[in-house]
Amino acid sequence: MPPPSRPPRTALAAFGVTAEPVVLPGGRGGTWRAGGLVLKPVDFEPETRWRADVLAALPPSTAFRVAPPVRSATGDWVVDGWEACRFVAGEPDVGRPDDVLRAGIAFHAAVRDVPRPAYLDLRDDPWSVGDRVAWEEAPADVGPAALDLLEPLVAARRPVDLPAQVVHGDLPGNVLFAAGLPPAVIDWPPYWRPASWAAAVAVADCLCWYGAPPALVDRWSHLPGWDQVLLRALIYRIVTHNRASGDWPADQLRAYRPVIDLVVARLSRPGSPR
User: Fold this and answer.
1) 109 and 45 share a domain?
2) At residue 34, does pLDDT exceed 80?
3) Which of 45, 47, 40, 46 is nearest to 8 (CA)?
4) Which residues contact 68 (CB under 8 A, 6 or more apart)?
5) Strand partners, 86
6) Among 5, 72, 133, 251, which residue carries the largest CB count within 10 Å?
């Protein structure tokens, strides 16, 4: 893999960077820290500008922090394909799923009244496709391995009548913990879905990839439409992976199967929504 591209001098100057940039670990690479700023390349400019406007307007909270976006010297959020934000202290800890979910719930309460961003209709990446398939807004055009995983989930899917809002669709690795500080919610990929779905995505990820016990599902089952949004979280992740990679090694299949079985079994119980 080639080394990540360094921020161009034009962007560094525009954001007032004087320190030498150092690449940060994690994520997809390409994120740099320079003193008190973090710079990263922009994936989809309409989303970057919208997100920066929303985060800049958020009032301070005792329940969570964000990485405040930084304007350039010209007042813009984007310079030559790069954006900047303030560095926030902390490290992710996927072994603390309940704390991650609590931070997400507080964040979602703070952005509950933000209008739906129009750019969502234009976004066309594996994650957006997976999201639309999960909510029956697009067909599941996937290969045989993914289709086999999806079959019991699709068979158990039923309508969900829950209010939508902007939510964070990738919480576990993007909540930072630091002693004495509220958790920081960073790297926000926005979706327009029920807040409980965002929590369900986090739970599904923790079950599949981070060793969380099945009891995690029960602990958050009070959230609205829980089993159905958890089912959709799995569909979302499976279709996204198929779209992004198409490769299904044995460890990927093993990660999903027990969680699929758990969710489908919950939906098969007497009294479950059908």
Assistant:
1) no
2) yes
3) 40
4) 55, 56, 85, 86
5) 37
6) 133
* 47 closest CA partner among 116, 132, 105, 111: 116
Query: 158 and 104, same structural domain?
Result: yes
- 137 with 162, same domain? yes
Domain membership flag for residue 187? yes
- Total number of domains constituting the chain: 2
Per the CB < 8 A criterion, the answer to whether 116 and 41 are in contact is no
Where does the chain show beta strands of DSSP type E?
Answer: 22-23, 32-34, 37-41, 65-66, 82-86, 91-92, 165-168, 175-177, 184-185, 190-193
Q: What are phi and psi of 83, to 5 degrees?
A: -125, 165
- CA–CA separation, 202 vs 185, rounded Å? 13
pLDDT tens digits along 251-263:
999 999 999 999 9
**φ, ψ of residue 160 in degrees (nearest 5):** -125, 125
Range of the domain at 40: 9-88
> HSE-up of 26 (CA within 13 Å, CB side)?
11
Q: HSE (CB half, 13 Å, CA atoms) of 105?
A: 13
Q: Answer yes or no: is pLDDT of 54 > 80.
A: yes
